[in-house]
Amino acid sequence: MNFRTTLVIIILLAGIAGAYFLFFQESTDQASTDEKSPIHEVYDIERDSVQQVELSFADPAYQNLKLAKDVSGNWQLKAPFQAVADNEKMNQMLDDILNKRVKHTIEVSELTQYGLDTPSITLALWTDGTSPAVTFLIGKKAINYSVYIKEKSEAHVFLIESSALDDLTKSPTDLRERAVVKFNAETVSNIQLTYRDVGSTSQSKTVNCGKREDTWYVTQPIEAKADTQEIERILSDLLLLRVSTYEADGADATVLAQLEKYGLDEPRIQLKLIDRDITHTLNIGSAVPPESGQQEHVYVRDAHYESVYTMPDDIYRLLNKSAFDLRDKRVIDFQRTATNRFSISIRGQEEVVCTKGYDNIWELQTPTGKIKTDAKAVDDLLFGVDSLEAVVFVESPVGNLTSYGLAAPSMKVAFTQKGEDKPVILLIGDSAEDETVYVKSEYSPQVARVERALIDKIALGAGWLRDKQVLNFHIDDAIRLTLRGEDVDSLTCQRLGTNWRLTAPVKEEANNAEVNAIIYELDNLTADIFVGNTSALTDSITGFNNPDVLLTVELRDQKVYTLQVGKKEASGRFYARLQHEPDSIFLLNAELVPKLKTTLTLFRTPKQ
């Protein structure tokens, strides 16, 4: 290598080095090499200690921001207008800047070349007192994805990641809370809804609910216990609703003049919600002109912050509630799990009594003794009455119970609870024109109409509540089976040891599988329901004068059971009874009856 080449290389290297140090505006004796601490350590300022933030921007396209914590420690936007800020977003912004690590520190005397004489962003952080703890000026970008920054009171400049510019370039919308309203559902004590129909000239209607000793009540326009689950659902859903777009902010003349435009001068619904000493007020205005394929939205105004925004019309459906919607619609209040006795009085004559033993097994009391109950039917009765809800409440106070069939009710259902002497009684009256039924609690003046499905079951009395198993024997105890009927072969089978033998109309070995199948169906025979009042059911109506099927099974202990299966009734089920219990008529599922029929051919052993 000759001297000229060496000289050229030296000149090139010197130029590169000069350009590098000229770009950074620093020299090797100016820059430290071991300053990698994050900003919060360098300036001893933790995110949670920050009480106020001010952001100023050189670019007029961005609005200067002021945010401060309230007494509860929640961030509030104070300028350019007042609004609730998003705590999570604020904490993230502070974390992003305070956790940035200092790359290099430069001692300088002139700020212009770093863009710090007119910084693009000025960030002031207060921890307490009337002066900011630190004020950061953020200037130009440097190479290596860095940006120049200095604390206002200090002489030196340092570099941090240039992502700080994105972290701090925020609009009010970026930092504000998008929850429609923020409150603590546990401490809300009052909800008031005022609503009017769109275009209606009638006066507005108000529904008010108050919480007393952890129990919600409707206090206007009626006095009644409220539906706590419904109110809790409304509060829960309110907390989940989010703003779609912000239309206007600030309590200025412009916003107030536009209220009619948004349908907020006379809102369709106004919500007032009291959480401790804070009253939140939301006005729900008109629908936003719809866009094709988009969910419908409405205008909403937060009266406290004088802001107007749009959101899905879910909020309208959520808050469009009447007093009936919010009141407790249960007709009778008792503890079904504590109930140990109940009775059903039907038309003042038949009384059905069920009691629960120490083993928690329910038994039906009859003149001839106790019989098993259908556990599911008892559960359905207790749960059904406990959750029985009004379709409509008759306006109280009730003047004449006779007009509802409740002065002399057709049925009474009384529930006695453990440790209580006086039962809770449900009175059941007449049917209304829409086929609902008038009911009331005996000790309440309130009359309600309810769906009749449960009432119809109660009217069946013991027929609904008794155990539905017709026979109960062991299949191996059956020793003789006889089948007769209208359209079946008459035949008799006798058990010899473990095998069955046909004895009539032929004498030969029987098909054990077919005979045992019939015995199994009898052993597990279950009624769909027992008919409560059998006095009007003559043998000609039921078909018992000429049964479709007559099955007799004789047991080893000489007990004999004869099942009579008669005609079909209106629902398509078959009337049936045991011959020795002529008044215990029940209904059999139509699919079961063909299984009880057989033919001589099926009972005969197949020829080899």
Polypeptide structure, described:
The protein is an alpha+beta fold and about 600 residues long. The chain has four domains: about 30-175, no CATH class; about 190-325, no CATH class; about 335-465, no CATH class; about 475-605, Immunoglobulin-like, CATH 2.60.40. The protein is about 20% helix and about 35% strand. It contains 16 helices and 36 strands. A nine-stranded antiparallel β-sheet has the order 4-3-2-1-6-7-8-9-5. Strand 29 and strand 30 form a beta hairpin. The longest helix is centred in the N-terminal third of the chain and has 22 residues, at about 5-25. The chain is elongated. The termini are far apart.
Keywords:
608 residues; alpha+beta; 9-stranded antiparallel sheet; 20% helix; elongated
Question: What is the total domain count?
Answer: 4
Overall radius of gyration? 42 Å
Shape descriptor: elongated
Mind summarizing the main beta sheet?
9 strands, antiparallel
Number of helices: 16
Write out the strand line-up for the largest beta sheet, numbering strands in chain order. Answer: 4-3-2-1-6-7-8-9-5
User: What are the segments in which pLDDT stays under 50 over at least 5 consecutive residues?
Assistant: 19-33
Q: Termini separation (Å)?
A: 116 Å
Task: Report the average pLDDT across residues.
Answer: 88
Number of E strands = 36
Structural class: alpha+beta
Helical content stands at 10-25%
Strand content: 25-35%
